[in-house]
TrEMBL record:
Keywords recorded for this protein, A-Z: Hydrolase, Magnesium, Manganese, Metal-binding
Residues flagged as site, Interaction with DNA substrate: H250
Known cofactor(s): Mg(2+); Mn(2+)
Domain Endonuclease/exonuclease/phosphatase residue range list: 4-250
Cofactor: how bound: Probably binds two magnesium or manganese ions per subunit.
Annotated positions for site Transition state stabilizer: N149
Coiled-coil residue windows: none
One Pfam family matching this protein: Exo_endo_phos
Protein name: Exodeoxyribonuclease III XthA
Entry-linked PANTHER family: EXODEOXYRIBONUCLEASE III (PTHR43250:SF1)
Species assigned in the record: Rubrivivax gelatinosus (strain NBRC 100245 / IL144)
Family to which this protein belongs: Belongs to the DNA repair enzymes AP/ExoA family.
Gene name as annotated: xthA
GO biological process, one term: DNA repair
Plastid among keywords: no
Length: 258
DNA sequence: ATGTCTACACACTGTAGA
């Protein structure tokens, strides 16, 4: 079972790339982020025509997450994280597909920091932590997949160079500690586990020819609870779609569970 | 400081968010 995450950066503008990727990579489950569209304008027909069932949580202009399942309808378990009824951002959607539980998340960027946006990021991470603690011990495989907006370390595996990013919210110690604490609950970082020190970037800024120079960051992650990690066979980045016309600034990442 | 892209609105140019 192939489970993927892909920050599409606008599903309307990116629909041709999304459909190509679904056809060529053929994930069984796809978690999408940054739909940047309201619920009413989600392109369900095109996605169904590609052979996928879908649930989504949209928001006009910003944010938005979806779970797609090939030849199946995802069964929704949760819409939004618990812990703040005043939070209006569409950033978390949880579903069951087959025997696997998938949490699709779009973690707040947090820039500029310090400031209210960074505070919101850290509070959101705390809420994610508390909810993840209720999932980690389930007998079912659990995959928390999405754009975490955290570069885990300064290692070449995670960033081409930390210079120039020292003040960015994605590299702050508080962001990294929260990400590490999440893993300490009992979640495995699939891509890091299978690829060691190799550079495994998932995001490249549009400007300054960052893609052409492979000046990327690893910020899209799939965290696996123990039952899921026991079935982990492969994890890869689908770089091919990032090199095409009008791409997202992210590449999809996926795991294969046996 | 710069740079690029998407979506939105007092909309064909400017602004926010990333």
């Amino acid at each position: 079972m192939k489970i993927a995450t892909f920050n599409v950066n606008g599903i309307t503008a990116r629909l041709p790339r999304l459909l190509e990727w679904l056809a060529e990579s053929a994930p069984d489950v796809a978690c999408l982020q940054e739909l940047k569209t309201s619920d009413e304008t989600f392109p369900l027909q095109a996605i169904e025509a590609a052979g996928y069932g879908a649930i989504w949580h949209g928001q006009k202009g910003f944010n938005g997450v979806a779970v797609l399942a090939r030849g199946a309808q995802p069964v929704e378990r949760r819409r939004g994280l618990p812990g703040d009824p005043d939070d209006t951002h569409s950033r978390y959607l949880e579903a069951q597909v087959g025997d696997v539980i998938v949490g699709a998340l779009y973690l707040p960027n947090g820039n500029p920091q310090p400031g209210p946006k960074f505070d919101y990021k850290l509070k959101w991470m705390q809420r994610l932590h508390e909810h993840a603690a209720t999932l980690v011990g389930l007998d079912a495989p659990v995959v928390l997949a999405g754009d975490y907006n955290v570069v885990p370390t300064d290692a070449v595996r995670d960033i081409y160079s930390p210079k120039g990013w020292q003040n960015d919210a994605l590299l702050q110690p508080e962001s990294r500690e929260a990400f590490a604490r999440l893993q300490a609950l009992g979640f495995t970082d699939a891509l890091a586990t299978l690829h060691g020190d190799a550079a495994m970037y998932t995001y490249w800024d549009y400007f300054r020819q960052r893609w052409e120079r492979n000046a990327g960051l690893r910020i899209d992650h799939l965290l696996l609870n123990a039952p899921a990690a026991a079935r982990l066979k492969a994890a890869e980045v689908d770089r091919f779609i990032r090199g095409r016309e009008k791409p997202s600034d992210h590449a999809p990442v996926w795991v294969e569970l046996g």
